[in-house]
Each structure stands twice: as C-alpha cells, then as structure tokens.
Amino acid sequence: MGTMPTDQEGTSRNGAGAGTSPRAAGPPLFEFRDVTVVRGGRTVLERVSLRLDEGEHLAILGPNGAGKSTLIRAILREFYPVRREGTVFSCRGREVWDVFDLRSAIGVVSNDLQQAYDPGATGREVVLSGFFSSIGLFNHRVTPAMLDRAESVGRFLGIGHLLDRPIGSLSSGEARRCLVGRALVHDPAALLLDEPTNSLDLSAQHTLRRTLRRVARAGTAVIVVTHQLHDIIPECGRVVLMKEGRIVADGPTPEVLTDDRIGALFGVPVRLVRENGWYYATGY
User: Fold this and answer.
1) How many CA atoms lie within 13 A of 100 on its CB side?
2) What is the pLDDT of residues 126-162, one digit of tens each?
3) Which of 19, 176, 177, 210 has the highest count of CB atoms within 10 angstroms of its CB?
C-alpha cells in the first residue's frame, strides 16, 4: 500500500500514522443502482444511481426536501430500497452488510447527533463513543489503546484542549469538531457530514472547513451533504445535485457548479463566483 503525503505535523490518515493509497481498483465504497425508497406510502428517493470509490471526495448539494437526508439514511442502512430487478445496494461489493461494520467504514457527523449527547459528556467521552457507535459510553469497556487513539485524533484535529471539558460548555463549532473526532476514531474509509456548518458562526465555519480539508488531505474520503455552496471544500472533485428525490446532475465540480444548474436547482437566478477553489452564489 502506498503512503499518503503527511500533514505539517508528520502524521497521516488522521493522526494514526497509517499509510493509504490512491483510489483502489477494487469494488466501490458504496454503490446504488436504480434505488427507490418509499416511506409512509410516499416515494422519497426515486431510481437513484450513485457510486463512490474508495478515497473519493464528494459533495451532495440540494435544497431542503431534496432527499439528501433520506440518501444518507439509505447509505447507513437505516432505510432500505424497494426491491426490483436490476437494483444494486452494496457496500464494498457486498449487498449483505453488517450495520456495525458499515458504520466503522463510514464515520458520520450531524447536528442531530450533536444534540443527542448529554451536555455533561466530556469531549473525550464523545470521541471514545465512536468505537461503539453509541451516544455516550454507558457500560462499554474503554481500553488503553482506545484512549491513546482518542488522544492522537485530538492532537490531529487540534481539539486536545477540549477533551476534558463537558460538551455543554463548548461552542457549537467546538462540539462539532469533537464529533469529527468521534467519526474518525476508528479510522473509517470515509467521513460523511450532514449540513456540517449548520448553526455555526463565521469563525467556527472557517475552523471546521480547515479541519475537513486536513482530513481529506490525510487520506480519508470526505462526503459533504449540504444545501450550502460554501460547504463544498476544494478537495471535492465531484458534485452530485439532488432535487425532489432524484439525482439531476453528477460530475466534475466545475462542470456541475454552473449558474444555470444552480439557479434551476434552487429556483432563483444566481451568479457563481469561484475563488481559490471555493464557490459562492451572488445575484439572487
């Protein structure tokens, strides 16, 4: 296996020191083909086809109600598709997949997850709970190796000073970065973020985006699911557009993020501005 370039502190793959290779030639991290999801008698995803290769950075963009959250829950096997001939619903080439193995392959960060924690839980407990896919530690046995890994991830993310503090005392941005640590502590192949900058002020947004860029450069695939153009980090070379439960565009970032496509997606006239790899919408 090849070795990824190290970050400025000399660590790779999220502070664990492990090497990682460019996109593998094997099966994709996950693949949907002609996937339809029905909830409460209503079709919420319709004939969606999406493939993500190992190590690929992807942004999924769409307005509220586009089906993005449903897609996330389908990726995490919380929702299952209508079975029909030709449907593919696989992770690393396997259609039958243990949900705990899946969650070890994909670390998740969301505002709902952040709100689920007891305010008295420390940053360290939040990070360590990622080993167990739990909200808190409860009666789980934490090993010295797990503690060492949590400290390593804390150093990598620059949150070591937050680990002893209760998350109820942290800012939203600080708590969100602890959740990134939780998602990364078991060294997943991909980090999936649902509306990552929701409720964050400008300073916290800046810090979180810088953190995500560092994670991407260290070798973990970053999947950003958002309705905000400025959440798409420059490392995302591919963008998927969603609307009304369908994928309406999928391709290289510069080809997908155009005035006409984004204007049609959100129903407003826009002019996109690109600066240093970041995209912003003006003119609406």
Assistant:
1) 5
2) 999 999 988 989 889 999 999 999 999 999 999 999 9
3) 176
